[in-house]
Write a structure and sequence with these properties.
The complex is a heterodimer of chains A (110) and B (113). Helices cover 0% and strands 55% of the residues of chain A. In chain A, a hairpin with a 5-residue loop joins β7 and β8. By secondary structure, chain A is mainly beta. Chain B has 113 residues and is mainly β. In chain B, the strands form 2 sheets. In chain B, strands 2, 4, 5, 6, 9, 10 and 11 form a 7-stranded mixed sheet that branches. A 4-stranded antiparallel sheet of chain B has the order 1-3-8-7, with no helix packed on it. The termini of chain B are far apart. In chain B, 38% of the residues are buried. The chains are: A mainly beta (110), B mainly beta (113). Chains A and B meet through β5 and β10 of A and β5 and β10 of B.
């Protein structure tokens, strides 16, 4: 079945630095979504990418969908303490199921 | 506009017991899906309900069952609880039968002793 993998599992970042988290699928995706889960919270939708090579920005967050629609990345610039949490990608390859990756857990050193 | 609400927030059961978790979908949403999130893992798809029928299921045994009601609220039932069923159970609502953008509830934390 479809598998979605994320790397790295943990990301320790100095406040103000940039970092990137990557998501790879074993199958071609029709779209990919990103969610953020704060410690003790629940996943909250960030963005959806649909088109091959699509790039979307939300303030300091840049999301990209690969040309082959099998991978995606999230790049955060000038990391802040509010960026702490776990970022999940979720890929859709059929009509009803989103497959979530294991997430990248981000901690920030002030 | 109300969000997704789940109950109970926490519960403790023993092996072999049965549990029912409840979810009210966000206003205007007609699809509910359930996910199991073990500690340190991503959410794992259990099943989805659209118009009161199950229209998708993940790799979970039949002792995981559900219902959707005419008002689009939903229940997740788990029979013959096992220790590995300890997890955060997340309900998510969306609009439409496909895996559209999900709005998650705060979850029900189940501990099986």
């Amino acid at each position: 079945g479809q598998q979605v993998m994320q790397i790295p599992q943990y990301q320790h970042v100095q406040e103000g630095e940039d970092f990137t988290t990557y998501c790879n699928s074993s199958t071609t995706l029709s779209n990919i979504q990103w969610y953020k889960q704060r410690p003790g919270g629940h996943p909250v939708f960030l963005i959806q990418l649909v088109k091959s090579g699509e790039v979307k920005k939300q303030k300091r967050l840049t999301f990209q969908f690969g040309e082959a629609k099998k991978n995606s990345s999230l790049h955060i610039t000038a990391t802040q303490t509010t960026d702490v949490g776990t970022y999940f990608c979720a890929g859709r390859s059929n009509d009803y199921k989103l497959s979530f990756g294991a997430g990248t857990t981000v901690t920030v050193r002030a | 506009e109300t969000g997704v609400t789940q109950s109970p927030t926490h519960l403790i059961k023993t092996r072999g017991q049965q549990v029912t978790l409840r979810c009210s979908s966000q206003s205007g949403h007609n699809t509910v899906s359930w996910y199991q999130q073990a500690l340190g893992q991503g959410p794992q798809f259990i099943f989805q309900y659209y118009r009161e029928e199950e229209n998708g299921r993940g790799n979970f045994p039949p002792r995981f069952s559900g219902l959707q009601f005419p008002n689009y609220s939903s229940e997740l039932n788990v029979n013959a609880l096992e220790l590995d069923d300890s997890a955060l159970y997340l309900c998510a609502s969306s609009l439409g039968s496909g895996a559209n953008v999900l709005t998650f509830g705060a979850g029900s934390r189940l501990t099986v002793l």
